[in-house]
């Protein structure tokens, strides 16, 4: 097979970890004999400062023919977060109906959890976040601004299509894992309309999967359980807001932001899916060559898995864990490897 992949290195350490990712991808392509056509796009905050927009007006059209997008990070100290969010990330996620945000949480060999005594056997779950609707809507407004009658309303939008499809993806994913256990994040004791509806659809969709063990927790206690009982979880599905919270908390118990990967999936493959490390552009360390490339490598594993090259992805993560297991870590994890030296070690362990 021949894969067309769009690369958006973006800003800051995105410009360091994506080239590292390209190096390992090229080695994997040779070893596992698949074709790669990588096309780089300059869309970024740097592009914004030159052109007044994060990408050209036809940027989405340029990306549409690709099977996957590999993104580094976008963001810069002098550009407001909403510019990169609304100018690039959200248009890509929404136009290409990347309705699943998938974040694996697993403690890798040689990396320690901030949770004392927890090992790889305890921390291995997936967070499935709804990525297109829910609480993050632009419906709402403000009245009587600046007076003491000031009132602000923010609507949430939950559609049957939107809720069902993400829960169904979570069911299918859980069915393919040994534990076959799916947990729903809810808050139907406090939120009167949307969350009872979420629960209702969770019951309806999971009814098609009698072999799945299903449960649900309110988001408040669920966050506590993530810390106190990470071993309880296998696949956890949540709305856009609850999934957002859980998908930052999850990686935090598994060694931090330098290793956390993510995928934004258009499950039906009508449009490109996007794979990206969870971390941002990290301007404080950009340009020093010390960024941890594991989050990018793991995102590439997810991309290869989605494209149908699972053995290549598995080989990549085995190589990463060989290196971390031997004690070679980047600075964020307490080691002294650079982006390049770590990448070379991974490539060395691949072949
Ligand atoms: P942005 O504005 O793009 O979100 P940020 O500064 O918020 O960028 P984060 O990704 O949120 O960056 O990271 C917070 C901090 O974690 C960084 O400042 C950096 O010190 C550290 N960090 C993040 N990613 C990495 C990485 N891959 N390797 C090493 N350290 C990292
Ligand atoms: Mg940030």
Automatic annotation (TrEMBL):
Entry EC no(s): 1.1.1.83
Cofactor(s) of this protein: Mg(2+); Mn(2+)
One Pfam family, short name: Iso_dh
GO molecular function terms noted in the UniProt entry: D-malate dehydrogenase (decarboxylating) (NAD+) activity; magnesium ion binding; NAD binding
SUPFAM superfamilies: Isocitrate/Isopropylmalate dehydrogenase-like
Protein name: D-malate dehydrogenase (decarboxylating)
Similarity comment: Belongs to the isocitrate and isopropylmalate dehydrogenases family.
Keyword terms of this UniProt record: Manganese, Metal-binding, NAD, Oxidoreductase
Annotated PANTHER family: D-MALATE DEHYDROGENASE [DECARBOXYLATING]
Record keyword Cytoplasm present: no
Residue ranges occupied by any Isopropylmalate dehydrogenase-like domain in the UniProt entry: 4-346
Matches recorded under InterPro entries: ICDH/IPMDH (IPR050501), IsoCit/isopropylmalate_DH_CS (IPR019818), IsoPropMal-DH-like_dom (IPR024084), TTC_DH (IPR011829)
Reactions it catalyzes: (R)-malate + NAD(+) = pyruvate + CO2 + NADH
Organism superkingdom: Bacteria
């Amino acid at each position: 097979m021949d894969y067309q992949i769009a690369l958006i290195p973006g800003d800051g350490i995105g410009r360091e970890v994506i080239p590292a990712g390209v190096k390992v991808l090229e080695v994997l392509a040779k070893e596992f004999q698949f074709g790669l056509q990588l096309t780089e796009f300059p869309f970024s905050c740097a592009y914004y400062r030159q052109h007044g927009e994060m990408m050209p007006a036809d940027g989405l059209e340029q990306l549409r023919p690709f099977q996957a997008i590999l993104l580094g990070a976008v963001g810069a100290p002098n550009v407001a977060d909403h510019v990169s969010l609304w100018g690039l990330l959200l248009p890509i996620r929404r136009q290409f109906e990347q309705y699943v945000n998938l974040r694996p949480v697993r403690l890798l060999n040689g990396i320690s959890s901030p949770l004392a005594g927890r090992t790889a056997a305890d921390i291995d779950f997936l967070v499935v976040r709804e990525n297109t609707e829910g609480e993050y809507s632009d419906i709402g407004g403000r009245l009587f601004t600046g007076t003491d009658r000031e009132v602000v309303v923010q609507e949430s939008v939950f559609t049957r299509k939107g809720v069902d499809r993400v829960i169904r993806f979570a069911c299918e994913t859980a069915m393919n894992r040994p534990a076959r256990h799916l947990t729903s994040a809810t808050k139907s004791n406090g939120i009167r309309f949307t969350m009872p509806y979420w629960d209702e659809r969770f019951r309806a969709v999971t009814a098609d999967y009698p072999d799945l063990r299903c449960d649900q927790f309110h988001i408040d206690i669920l966050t506590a359980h993530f810390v106190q009982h990470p071993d309880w979880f296998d696949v956890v599905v949540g709305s856009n807001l609850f999934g957002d919270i859980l998908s930052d908390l999850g990686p935090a118990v598994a060694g931090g932001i330098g290793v956390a990967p993510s995928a934004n999936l258009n499950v039906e493959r009508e449009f490109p899916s996007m794979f990206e490390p969870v971390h941002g552009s990290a301007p404080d360390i950009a340009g020093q060559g010390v960024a941890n490339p594991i989050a990018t490598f793991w995102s590439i594993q997810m991309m290869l898995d989605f494209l149908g090259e699972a053995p290549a992805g598995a080989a990549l993560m085995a190589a990463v864990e060989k290196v971390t297991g031997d004690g070679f870590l980047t600075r964020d994890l307490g080691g002294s490897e650079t982006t390049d030296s770590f990448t070379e070690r991974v490539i060395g362990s691949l072949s």
